[in-house]
């Protein structure tokens, strides 16, 4: 089933196919990659769009605590609300992994146009010197 209303664009990260053309991300994959780009971009990182991105990178030196997890959740919810209008965020869970220096961020979301639900897990690395 064709879903051009969800978008087609260059894949992320940029890779080439066997003919030397850039690979594309289509439809739900385009949405997933967009979420990954939003989460992977710190606010102020893009010169022409200083407001674009997610505020989690302001928290990289925070201690792994329930407060930090709550702030990460809020920053992600706000960024996705602003920059990815094709989805509804259903749930965000933040769990510590690897001795507390990595937060595994699990995002359950639904693509509005198709009502298909997906999950994306994004690893966020805290600074080692502040993990406990």
TrEMBL record:
<feature type="domain" description="IraD/Gp25-like">
    <location>
        <begin position="26"/>
        <end position="115"/>
    </location>
</feature>
<dbReference type="InterPro" id="IPR007048">
    <property type="entry name" value="IraD/Gp25-like"/>
</dbReference>
<dbReference type="Pfam" id="PF04965">
    <property type="entry name" value="GPW_gp25"/>
</dbReference>
<protein>
    <submittedName>
        <fullName>Baseplate wedge subunit</fullName>
    </submittedName>
</protein>
